[in-house]
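ARCHIVE CARD
Drawer: 12
Card no.: 0347
Subject: one protein chain, sequence and derived structure
Cross-reference: see card 0346
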Amino acid sequence: RRHRGGGIMARIFKHREALLFVAILLLVGAIELRFPGFIAPRNLVSIYNDTAILIILALGQAAVILARGIDLSIAANLALSGTIAALLNVAFPDLPVIFLLVAATFSGAVLGAINGLLVWRLSIPPIVVTLGTMTIYRGTIFLLTGGAWVNAHEMTDAFKAVPRAVFVGIPVLAWFSLAVIALMMVVLIMTRLGRAFYAVGGNPHAAVYTGISVGRTHFFAYLIAGALAGLAGYLWTARYAVAYVDIANGFELDVVAACVIGGISIAGGAGTAIGAVLGALFLGIIKNALPVIDVSPFWQMAISGTVIIIAVAVNARSSRVKGRVILKKAEHAR
């Protein structure tokens, strides 16, 4: 019985998500010991709400990375889509908020589609495409605004109210992230497109022989990431009541970090939506806890970078171990 129980525990902890979940619990417990009240329900809801936009973007980025791509323009997409929504609100204050939300999501999808088309039709490496479009999208914001900020007093109260509203004790911003989590879980687990992401990321050459279009799969991955970035753009702009060129500048690194920490293989083809969510929560807890213990923002960046390197090393180590096991089995079979 002991052996059986130990075997079950061993199988559970082979899963990256289970290990990360335990790490999050240990991290929260350690912070609670140092600062009692950290795990108060209201504080945990606040931390989740602060992490909601990162979760939304990480799920979009996860789709791209699973298909063996990368989107470094995702934060610039957020900034441009959010700015478009803010400018529409200033120019047409009577427009319903739902229209502005849809407009931001649609504009984000268009920007994501541009990335997808460049990767698909021109066969340009994803990192080159998205580095280029990242700069283009930031530059477009400057052209639209003339370098000026769109401030809170220019936005309508209805525009700013949506992400700040509370429903059943939970902020609407958090509800948006929960809806996106459910949607992406369905897409990745239950749809042909989700299975195509894994197939293309795992072995694009084999995917072609099964009738999957690698280019079209990349396109839809970028389209999804773009649409979620557009949604996050409205939520970010409305929540913080400001839009300018540098909003969310550098946030794409946190998004990639959340995916890597959550077990999304940077080489593609491996990982889950839950893993991306847990990775984002891990980063969110760290970023909320470090200021409490008076850690410098520069040290926060260093700590985040260290966590990324460790996560990549763990992923690489896991891959090597699996390869060796397969080879050993093959030798025994002979």
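Annotation on reverse: The mean pLDDT is 87. The longest strand covers residues 166-167.
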